[in-house]
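ok posting inputs for the flavin mononucleotide job
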Amino acid sequence: MEEKEKLKVFYELYERRKSVREFADRGIEPDKLARLLMTLNRAQSAANRQPWHFIVAEKKGREELNALLYKEGFRNAPVIIAACADPGSAWVRKADKVNYSWVDVSIAVTEMIGAATAEGIGTCWIASLEPDKVKAALGVPARMDIVALVAIGYPTAELVKENKSRKSLGEIIHYGKW
Ligand SMILES: Cc1cc2nc3c(=O)[nH]c(=O)nc-3n(C[C@H](O)[C@H](O)[C@H](O)COP(=O)(O)O)c2cc1C
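and the output
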């Protein structure tokens, strides 16, 4: 593939990605799922601490977790991944003691979402949840934080470019100083 074509493919991924909340009744092929999971330990993290664990919950045997989801569409996702942060093993910024575990987990999830988009698979972050109940349903140790669940599966409609409502670059980019 030519350099120009490679760049086009890369940037088009960002155009195509969107949150998917309705999933087709179709499982994710094991090799594809394996490729998505591989991105999770390729991701960058502060001081390379990798303060994360991920629980892969397939539809079968997910009744307890499904009962905690607030959208029917999410319950139909063939895979839900619980992204867990381990603040105790993360890098902490000295100056203000900010713990980077949630940043690191979010980066790993975002890498996986990019790969899913490339595979034609839809995803949706689910942060709207009750963490204590999700932890109990999935047997997550008390020291861990549930950053989010990620619903993953083939979308009911094709992933195509959408005109997304976004702040303009002028509103959010500051050159030199604020
Ligand atoms: C950290 C985070 C948490 C989110 N939590 C939810 C959620 O609980 N439920 C939901 O339907 N969408 C959730 N979303 C999806 C956002 O609503 C969505 O990304 C945003 O509206 C922009 O739309 P797009 O993803 O289609 O570009 C979340 C997204 C992020 C990044």
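notes: DSSP finds seven helices and four strands in the chain. The beta strands are 52-58, 79-85, 122-126, 145-153.
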